[in-house]
């Protein structure tokens, strides 16, 4: 499933690659592209490529990955906001993640994964009603042709936890 097609630059700056997104909404793979875009790579694409490569390197810590995505974002790569959000969330920095994921969901309102991850961040900071709204929005986007997510299951689990407490 291709979330977006984009040419990024590998760590050594020599090879172009296609970025693919997996079923969980995270960047799943970076593979060689058949026809790299002509011209010089942009700074935002280079930082984004470095962040993707670092994310797939088992020796790179989450803070380093987050910093590379932050640099890509500062250079103008708005897709980096999404990746930065879920990397921060997985690193236990839910409040920071929430801020980035909220802004990304506003920038990409038809993207079901944007809403799913926003829901997870809202849930992590205790904003249960907002989490349920975000999961519902992810489901609506999915019904309109966006990506398949686990938002419905997450919403059910959250409602069950609320009932049990």
Question: Could you walk me through the main structural features you see in this protein, from its secondary elements to its overall organization?
Answer:
With 165 residues, the protein is mainly α. Helices cover 58% and strands 9% of the residues. The chain has helices spanning 43-55, 62-74, 79-90, 94-107, 112-124, 128-143, 151-164, and strands spanning 7-9, 16-21, 27-32. Strands 1-2-3 form a three-stranded antiparallel beta sheet, with helices on one face. Helix 1 runs antiparallel to helix 2 (62-74). Residues 1-16 and 32-36 have low confidence and may be disordered.
Write the layout of secondary structure elements.
Blueprint: E1 7-9, E2 16-21, E3 27-32, H1 43-55, H2 62-74, H3 79-90, H4 94-107, H5 112-124, H6 128-143, H7 151-164
Helix pairs in contact: 1-2, 2-3, 3-4, 3-5, 4-5, 5-6, 6-7
Key attributes of the depicted protein:
Serine Threonine Protein Phosphatase 5, Tetratricopeptide repeat; 7 helices; globular; 165 residues; mainly alpha; single chain; disordered N terminus; 3 strands; 2 domains; 3-stranded antiparallel beta sheet
């Amino acid at each position: 499933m291709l979330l977006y097609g984009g040419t990024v630059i590998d760590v050594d700056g020599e090879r172009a690659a296609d970025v693919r997104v997996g079923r969980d909404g995270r960047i799943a793979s970076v593979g060689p592209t058949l026809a790299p875009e002509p011209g010089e790579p942009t700074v935002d694409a280079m930082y984004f490529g470095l962040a993707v490569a670092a994310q797939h390197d088992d020796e790179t810590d989450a803070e380093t990955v987050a910093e590379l995505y932050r640099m890509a974002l500062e250079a103008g790569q708005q897709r980096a906001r999404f990746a930065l959000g879920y990397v921060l969330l997985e690193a236990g920095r839910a409040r920071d993640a929430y801020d980035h994921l909220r802004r990304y969901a506003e920038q990409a309102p038809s993207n079901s994964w944007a809403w799913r991850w926003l829901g997870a961040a809202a849930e992590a900071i205790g904003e249960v009603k907002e989490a349920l709204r975000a999961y519902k929005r992810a489901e609506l986007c999915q019904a309109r042709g966006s990506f398949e997510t686990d938002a419905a299951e997450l919403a059910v689990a959250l409602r069950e936890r609320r009932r049990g407490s």
